[in-house]
Design goal:
Number of strands of chain A: 11
Strand content of chain B: 35-45%
Structural class of chain A: mainly beta
Number of helices of chain B: 0
Helix content of chain A: under 10%
Structural class of chain B: mainly beta
Radius of gyration of chain B: 13 Å
Largest interface: A-B, 24 and 28 residues
Strand content of chain A: over 45%
Order of helices and strands of chain A: EEEEEEEEEEE
Shape of chain B: globular
Oligomer: heterodimer
Order of helices and strands of chain B: EEEEEEEEE
Number of strands of chain B: 9
Number of helices of chain A: 0
Largest sheet of chain A: 7 strands, mixed
Largest sheet of chain B: 6 strands, mixed
Chain lengths: 119, 110
């Protein structure tokens, strides 16, 4: 089965940095983009960016560019979301999802990682 | 890159049909036949229910159908069931390997 498993919940202080992982299994890791989506408490889904694991080429939403960095490790079939200089407004659930091409839809999704930023 | 526009909420009674609209621009929905829809129950992971404007993945009920015209996509749920009560999000490819979501619509089954 195709599966994406994310790292566990995080509690961080403002100004700190964070790395969330998304480990893929059940398919050829380099053959599919991975995308990341943010969901703030009680809010909708926001597309953050995507990475192509075959060459680590990334694209970001203008809303997140400069604050987020995506990376991939083909040796462990894992993609990472890096967030720097955390603020309380970064408190959210972060999801990774596989991008099916050329249809450009997201499936499956990881289980989500809750990030809480609080002093 | 602005979010696609969806109504904040819709409601219907069991057995009825409802339609959720999703309005974008000529840069996203209007330029690509790549609208997908996701359903999210409270506290759960979003699930794909429609892709490429109108196609249903295997395992998704025939009660879900969708369409696209110009810059607007629509999701219709027929024969409403209580289990359909959830949040629904549209998403469109926006060119240059980027995507944009709608703000989401809360469906209440009365």
């Amino acid at each position: 089965d195709v599966q994406l498993v994310q790292s566990g919940p995080e509690l961080k202080k403002p100004g700190e940095s964070l790395r969330i992982s998304c480990e893929a299994s059940g398919y050829s890791f380099s053959s599919y983009w991975i995308t990341w989506v943010r969901q703030m408490p009680g809010r909708g889904l926001e597309w953050m960016g995507k990475i192509d694991p075959s060459d680590s080429y990334t694209n970001y939403s203008p809303s997140f560019r400069g604050h987020v960095t995506l990376s991939a490790d083909r040796s462990t079939s894992t993609t990472y979301l890096h967030l720097s200089n955390l603020k309380a407004s970064d408190t959210a659930i972060y999801y990774c999802a596989r991008v099916e091409l050329p249809e450009n839809y997201f499936a499956p999704w990881g289980q989500g990682t809750l990030v809480t930023v609080s002093s | 890159q602005s979010a696609l526009t969806q109504p904040a909420s819709v409601s219907g009674s069991p057995g009825q049909s409802i339609t959720i609209s999703c309005t974008g621009t000529s840069s996203d929905i209007g330029s690509h036949d790549l609208v997908s829809w996701y359903r999210q129950h409270p506290g759960k992971v979003p699930k794909l229910i429609i892709f490429e404007n109108t196609k249903r993945p295997s395992g998704v009920s025939f009660r879900f159908s969708a369409s696209k015209s110009g810059n607007t996509a629509s999701l219709t749920i027929s024969g409403l069931q209580t289990e359909d009560e959830a949040d629904y999000f549209c998403c469109s490819y926006a060119g240059s390997s980027t995507f944009v979501f709608g703000g989401g619509t809360k469906l209440t089954v009365l």
